[in-house]
Amino acid sequence: MDAVFRRVKGVSQVVSGYAGGGADTANYETVSTGTTGHAESVEVFFDPSQVSYHDLLEVFFLVAHDPTELNRQGPDSGTQYRSSIFYTYNEQKKMAEEYIAQLDQKKAFPEPIVTKVVPLTGFYPAEAYHQNYLALHSDQPYIVINDLPKLERLQETFPKLCRK
Fold this sequence. Notes:
Helices cover 36% and strands 20% of the residues. It is α+β, with helices and mostly antiparallel strands. The two termini are 18 Å apart.
């Protein structure tokens, strides 16, 4: 997700990290156990005059990950890979829930959306080696197989939202 959102116009910063658990368990080794309550997450900073929250929701649901996979994303499984939107304002919650309802009504996916919309109680940046991971490891097999196709899909699906 980090690499996808970094390529969206109007996004000024993306921070990989952990949300949903406590500060004392916000590290990769512990989060990887699936027992911390954390989800691996990204914090996205954006300029609403250049990209809307709704645009970011579209990218999240249609490009960045599979919202129908419960406690997994691609080859990764565990509660730390659950599909979640952590909101900071009630308006974000409302918009996310409405968008999910629209996608469900349109039957946009062959399976039901399992994304949870929950309040953000804390976000903890991941270790430095997790930041901007795709750019630093673009030839790693995991990245080539799982993440590079997302960048292609972003360009194909939302060309006007992509940075040059």
